[in-house]
Design brief:
Length: 558
């Protein structure tokens, strides 16, 4: 049965529903906790939901169960990488490569982990880089307002990409306050002026002299602070700005001219190359777009560019392959992009590509002829009492032809024989949804509810069947059993009734129903006038509560 849950989980994951996949994998693990593939697949599903902590737990469990399976180390490495534990991720990938030296996934993962470890190490020397920078600036009153100024944000972005460019901004009065906040040092204190900053270097700040308060007729207005001058753009950024303006106007040739000029002036900034690749994409020059994106990533790695910029370049490569309908290749590059920085846009595109592939595979797998063969094999196994084998054949028949309602019904019968009632019930619901006139869907559903001691629900299913065929023998027999079960409490001894009542009242739902004054009134009416039952059952809410009391054995039909 664990393999059945694994198959359902895989289908859900391919359809872009990782949460449902996790539920199926979890059910499979409950059946067979030693199945390393189930843990591995659930790890992948958790990663899809960005739940990397649980993804790591399952990945480590996979390795513990199957130490010689290289894929387990790939799962561990991926989870650790997303958790920014790059050195541990590298070790996991290297361990996997010892088992399979030519494994492309492990090789790619190792390369990415090493790059991110290198970039993270470099970012530690850049005071303008890191997730805490914006938080620090927003929290300090000296710099809070700067974050609403576009030219300041542009300056900050340039410094994040290239901290060596700080000499360009020393004359900006905002720069000294920014450095003070980020480094925790008061550069305005005595002897600590910044070279190139406004005012005499090292000049101490004088404390204001307190004066006696004097009455005034009106408060004096504070002088308006002068707006900070905009930092002068570099020649490369000026060219980039012109390129952006041309791009917005869809004047792509002019945009290329300006971006190329920016690249010539500053070959260390990957943004110019990335923008150039965007132009190629719009022009449909896909090979040149991919080539330029690779060059941008190379430049970015060499100069410790922000992960977001690396991610954008990888995402654009993925978009090229998506546009060319090469979906497997697009998923590869989308995943690389998500490894660097997760964005909803790239994640959505990746899921779209996965859905297209899953649908193509499903359609390619369809074959009514093979489905009929599998159905017949399932029937033969069922007649022999080999229900697990019958389920396997019926499941294959469903994959080959999911429109054959009878196969779902047959599989429901197998699940019922194996006491897998919830799975059987699910197949019955599918049958009824596909063909509301298929009587066996209702009768088999009724028999499952009887097995679950849910007599009122069983009776409702049999009643539906009798509505389609009033003489259906299975439905009539089922209704008879329902009445026998529901009237059984009336035949009990006083001691047996007491035991049933105690068990029923231990159910919180039953307690809630019995404490409802309206329900107590209804039960009193039913006791005085049995015909009142039919009227109350017409109300779906009340009917459900009455069926619950019948199933619990607390009340009975006479």
């Amino acid at each position: 049965m664990a393999d059945e849950f694994k198959t359902k989980g895989n289908a859900a994951l391919q359809a872009g529903n990782p949460q449902q996949a996790i539920e199926f994998y979890t059910q499979g693990i409950a059946v067979d906790d030693s199945n390393h593939v189930l843990h591995s697949n659930r790890s992948a599903a958790y990663a899809k939901l960005e739940n990397y902590a649980d993804a790591l737990k399952d990945a480590e469990r996979t390795v513990a169960l199957k130490p010689a399976w290289a894929k387990g180390y790939s799962r561990v490495g991926a989870a650790l990488s997303f958790l920014d534990r790059h050195e541990e991720a590298i070790a996991a990938y290297e361990q996997g490569l010892k088992l399979e030296p030519s494994n492309a996934t492990l090789q790619s993962g190792l390369s990415e982990a090493q790059s991110r470890a290198k970039s993270s190490a470099g970012a530690g020397n850049n005071p303008f880089s890191g997730p805490e920078v914006m938080a620090k600036l927003a929290a300090d009153p000296r710099t809070r307002d700067f974050l609403s100024q576009p030219d300041f944000l542009q300056m900050l972005q340039m410094l994040q990409q290239n901290p060596n460019a700080l000499s360009q901004f020393l004359s900006d009065p905002r720069f000294q306050d920014t450095m003070s906040v980020l480094l925790g040092v008061d550069f305005g204190a005595a002897g600590m002026g910044m070279p190139g900053a406004g005012g005499a270097q090292g000049a101490p700040r004088t404390a204001p002299t307190p004066t006696a308060s004097k009455p005034t007729s009106a408060p004096r207005s504070e002088p308006q602070a002068k707006s900070a001058p905009e930092p002068e753009l570099s020649d490369a950024d000026k060219a980039k700005k012109l390129g952006n303006e041309a791009y917005k106007k869809k004047d792509f040739e002019a945009a290329l001219k300006h971006y190329n000029q920016a690249i010539e002036l500053d070959s260390t900034n990957m943004t110019y190359l990335s923008n150039k690749a965007a132009v190629y994409f719009e022009q449909g020059r896909f090979e040149e777009c991919v080539e330029t994106c690779h060059k941008a990533v190379e430049v970015g790695r060499d100069h410790q560019a922000d992960f977001k910029n690396i991610s954008k370049a990888f995402g654009r490569i993925g978009s090229v392959y998506f546009k060319k309908e090469e979906y497997e290749e697009s998923i590869k590059w989308f995943n690389k992009s998500l490894t660097e920085h997760r964005t909803s846009d790239i994640l959505k595109k990746c899921q779209q590509a996965e859905k297209v592939i899953a649908e193509r595979q499903r359609l390619a797998y369809l074959s009514p002829e093979i489905a009929l063969e599998e159905k017949n094999k399932g029937n033969e196994a069922f007649q022999k009492g080999d229900f697990p084998t019958a389920i396997a054949h019926y499941s294959e028949a469903i994959k080959r032809n999911p429109e054959d309602v009878k196969v779902y019904s047959n599989r429901a019968a197998c699940y019922t024989k194996l006491a897998e009632f919830r799975l059987g019930l699910s197949d019955c619901e599918t049958v009824i949804k596909m063909d509301p006139t298929f009587i066996k869907g209702y009768t088999r559903k009724g028999m499952i509810h009887l097995a679950l001691k849910e007599s009122s629900k069983a009776a409702a299913a049999f009643q539906e069947a009798l509505g389609l065929d009033a003489s259906n023998s299975d439905a009539l027999e089922g209704m008879k059993k329902c009445y026998e079960n529901q009237s059984a409490p009336a035949q009990m001894t006083e001691a047996e009734r007491e035991q049933v009542a105690q068990r029923a009242m231990a159910d919180p739902e039953v307690q809630s129903i019995m404490q409802d004054p309206a329900m107590r009134t209804i039960l009193q009416q039913m006791q005085e006038d049995p015909k009142a039952l039919q009227e109350h059952l017409k109300n779906p809410v009340i009917g459900e509560k009455i069926r619950k009391l019948l199933d619990s054995g607390l009340i009975a039909l006479r």
